Amino acid sequence: MNEGNPPGLSPEAAAQRLREEGPNELGVSQRRTLLDMAWDVVREPTFRLLMGAGTVYLAMGDPHEALILLGFVVIIMAVTVLQERLHRQRARSSARSVQPARARRAVARRCAF
Question: Do 77 and 85 contact (CB within 8 A), yes or no?
């Protein structure tokens, strides 16, 4: 092992990676909109099954049962999207609060050698 060198990238390699890939941050293009999250819920098999069951109720001539089922499906979809959004916001804020402190420690460790 090379004990004289600190682990990690050399300053030149780090600068090159920064030029090529950009900073290690969550970009605007990586953020998901409510529409993206809703589309993911719509693509789930369980959601499709429940929507199909609601359609069958409508086709059989029972609009009351269909509306109840479809209403609950919409409520469940809204709750799922909101939970995912809150979870992502919390995870993003936690990552942002931890990341700069770790980066400062890594730079301080590298400079100490």
Answer: no
